[in-house]
Specification:
The protein is mainly alpha-helical. It contains eleven helices and two strands. The chain folds into two domains: 2-71; 78-223, Orthogonal Bundle (Arc Repressor Mutant, subunit A), CATH 1.10.10.60. Strands 1-2 form a two-stranded antiparallel sheet.
């Protein structure tokens, strides 16, 4: 990390090296003479170097401020973070069209309650690799009916529905203090994730936080 930061000194070193080179080449005996220091080339270069450092400082300050705002963002309490698609009240019951077949409002409500029971009560999403066919078998709902229902009624797709539940479950485990004895990777795995990239992208999409930033924020609140 420190070695990487040293590259920022390169413009200044080039500037000084150039002055020293021309100092000896010109036969002058006073380092940084007024003639060399005021040469147009080095005047322009000096201003350029200064501008570069100012830009770097501003970018650093802006980046630090954004990170500070994110870490200070309020984290909703567990009971306030219900899975979006299952928040009360139940969405208005509407017909679901599957080709030439139309599921009536009562059929849609029955499917909704079956899916909710499987995911929220039985927590079937904790199974790694859990797929639409397994949900179809668990709820006794025909596969094509279930797929159309999720797309039209929840306005989402199956993978996002499952990963949202996993993320919320993971959030609860972190806020309940399990980070004190488990790694973030272990908590994610226990929540049903088997891929780090999927976990990270899903967590950010659902919560607005990177998993590590969320964990750090929770630690700060619980340790304070």
């Amino acid at each position: 990390m420190i070695r990487g930061d040293l590259i920022h000194l390169l413009p200044v070193l080039i500037y000084l090296a150039g002055i020293i080179f021309f100092y000896f080449a010109s036969g002058q005996h006073i380092l940084l003479s007024k003639k060399i220091a005021s040469h147009p080339v080095y005047t322009v270069y000096g201003f350029t170097v200064t501008a570069v450092y100012i830009i770097m400082i501003v970018r650093y300050l802006v980046s630090t401020q954004l990170k500070s705002r994110q870490s200070g963002k309020a984290i909703p309490k567990v009971e306030e973070r219900e899975t979006a698609v299952f928040r009360a009240p139940i969405p208005a019951i509407t017909d679901v069209h599957i080709g030439s077949v139309v599921l009536t409002g009562s059929q849609v409500e029955k499917i909704h309650l079956a899916v909710k029971d499987s995911l929220e009560t039985k927590k079937s999403f904790l199974q790694k690799g859990y797929n639409l066919r397994q949900l179809s078998e668990d709820t006794s709902i025909p596969l094509h009916h279930l797929s159309a229902f999720i797309n039209q009624f929840y306005n989402t797709h199956f993978n996002h529905l499952i990963n949202e539940h996993r993320v919320r479950y993971c959030e609860d485990k972190i806020q309940n203090g399990e980070w004190r004895s488990k790694t973030l990777e272990a908590i994610a795995e226990e929540s049903g994730f088997n891929n780090r990239n999927t976990f990270t992208s899903s967590f950010k999409k659902v919560t607005g936080f990177n998993p590590s930033a969320f964990l750090q924020s929770v630690k700060q609140h619980q340790i304070a």
